[in-house]
Structure formats: structure tokens, C-alpha cells
Amino acid sequence: MSLIRRGTLLVAGVLMALPAWGVEIMEWNRRPLSIPLPTGSERIVVLDRNVRVGLPAAIADPDILRVQSTGGVLYLLAHEDFDTQRVQLQDVESGEILLVDLSARQGASDEDIRIVEARPPTEAKDDERSTGSREANPGPRSPTPVALTRHAAQSLYSPLRTIEPLPGVRRVPMRLPESLPTLLPSLPVIATPLAAWALDGYTVTAVRLTNQDRRRAFELDPRWLQGDLYSATFMHPSIGPKGSAEDTTAVFIVTRGGSLAQAILLRPDTGEEGDDA
Predict the structure, then answer these.
(1) For every one of its 277 residues, what pLDDT tens digit does the chain have, with 9 covering 90 and above?
(2) Dist. CA 268–CA 239, nearest whole Å
(3) Distances 169 to 18, 47, 147, 149, 196 between C-alpha atoms, Å
(4) For residues 209-232, b (16+ Cβ closer than 10 Å) or e, as one string?
(5) Which of 27, 67, 191, 265 fits a disulfide with 180 by CB distance 3.0 to 4.6 angstroms?
(6) Strand duo 65-70 + 73-78: pairing
(7) Would you call 70 exposed, middle or buried from its count of C-beta atoms within 10 A (0-12, 13-18, 19+)?
(8) Closest Cα partner for 3 from 273, 209, 230, 177?
(9) Domain 23-128 classification at class level
(10) How many beta carbons lie within 10 A of that of residue 178, not counting itself?
(11) Residue (of 35, 56, 42, 32) closest to 12 by Cα position
(12) Pairing relation of β-strands 231-234 and 248-256?
């Protein structure tokens, strides 16, 4: 059974906040984009393209800046303040380079960013004539895995009125047993499937994780998950000892072309499916 390994580079991010996500739209017009990062908090940058990240020596240290990439999305976490640094993002397929000026400071916004291609002025004017005066421009929808993960998190943990609409999404049966001992076998946790949603060939399954060790807390690393998984997003970066307020968290697992039941070994002995959860 393989670890998470699908696409060019897949490393899951940590979901830092559940209530209504704001999205800042930035247009790439061949000028460097200025992106300040909040020190100590993760910021998500959606590009809709797989990129290679070229960091200058001053911040090419995971103790200063953690960079993770999955399915056209960057997860950036600055561990300390730093002045503006020029970063190159190279499109894996086309070779095009986008320039970003990164900086980090306390109190900077952690709002998600979506980078889109700037439209020619004539095209923008045509759009305005066809739609009339616009009061808001929400921009394109996030990539399906990101949108699905967000929808699942909001559906489980946010007030109903704050759940963002996601056209076409549907709740689907999980066909999983009550617990998944083979999902995260390296940690003493109980993995309980909660619910699943599907959209455009992707399925996201929410799984509750409960620590059974009363003495130890554990960092959560998506590379420890076992299965043919597209991506995984932990609700928190770590899980506390059993009996503490932090002993339970959740992971949102995205699979492509099938359900989680088809992507993992359900039983160590036979691999047979259990009853529906």
C-alpha cells in the first residue's frame, strides 16, 4: 500500500481555520506580486497550475519558511519575520516563471490568495458591457480538491449560514467500517470515518482522529497516511494526549476516481470491506 503519491508533487496542508474563507484575487500581469505572510500562521496561494518554487538563500530554510505544494496550491508558513525576498514560481508544463515578492511579519493577513491571469483591457470592457455594473467580482472557483475540502470542513464544523455554496457537490455513502486501523498505523489513534462528498471525479472523506496515548502528543504528517490518496488536509498540525482538550482532530482525505474504501487496505488480514459507517 503506497503513501500519498499522485501528480507531480503532493504534500498536504494543515487547515488552520474553518469559518468562512475570504479570497484575495491577484492578477499576474508580468509584474512581481507582493505577498506578505503572517508569521506563525499558514497562508494559501491558489495558482491552478503545478509550479516549482525557487527560493533565495536567505529563506531557503524550513525553519524560516515552510513551502508545500499540491495540485496547483501553495501552502506557505513563515516561522519568523523576514524582509522582502524575490521568489520564482515556474510552471512545470509551460516553463513560464511568475515572480513573487514574499515577506513575513506579525499581523499580516492570512486570507487565501488566488492568482489569475490579467485580462486584456478590451476583454474586461466587453465583460462589463455584457453584465452591467458589477458590485462584486468573486473570481473563479478554487480547484476541486481544495473546494471539496473546504466544503467538508465547513459542513461539519461551521454554522449552516456560513457554508459557501458549491454547485454540483453531493453527499455520498462511505461504505467504510466504524474505524480504519490501517489508515495511520504508525500512531496510536482511532480513525473514525464521518462523512463523504463527491464532485467532478473527486471524493473527500472526513475522518476523526482520537489519540489513545495519555502521555504523548504527536505531530501530524500526511506522509504517514497509508493508501492511494490524492491529498490530505489535517484540521490541526498536532494532536494532544488522551484526555486533553486537544486529543481529537480531523483529517480530510481526497481521492480521485474512487472512494476512500477503494484507496486503502481496510483490514490488515483480508482487505475486506466492513459495514457502512
Answers:
(1) 333 433 322 333 334 334 334 567 788 888 899 999 999 999 998 886 778 899 999 999 999 999 987 777 889 999 999 999 999 998 877 778 889 999 999 999 888 888 877 655 544 444 445 444 444 444 446 789 999 999 998 888 776 667 788 888 998 898 899 999 999 999 999 999 999 999 999 999 999 999 999 999 999 988 899 999 999 999 888 999 999 989 999 999 999 999 999 998 876 543 444 444 4
(2) 24
(3) 18, 22, 10, 11, 10
(4) bbbeeeeeebebbbebbbbbbbbb
(5) 191
(6) antiparallel
(7) buried
(8) 230
(9) mainly beta
(10) 11
(11) 42
(12) antiparallel
Q: What is the CA radius of gyration of the chain?
A: 20
**Cell, residue 34:** 507582493
Pairwise CA distance, residues 98 & 116, whole Å: 11
What is the rounded CA–CA span in Å between residue 267 and residue 183?
Answer: 10
Q: Where are the domains of the chain?
A: 23-128, 145-263
pTM above threshold 0.70:
no
In terms of residues, how long is the chain? 277
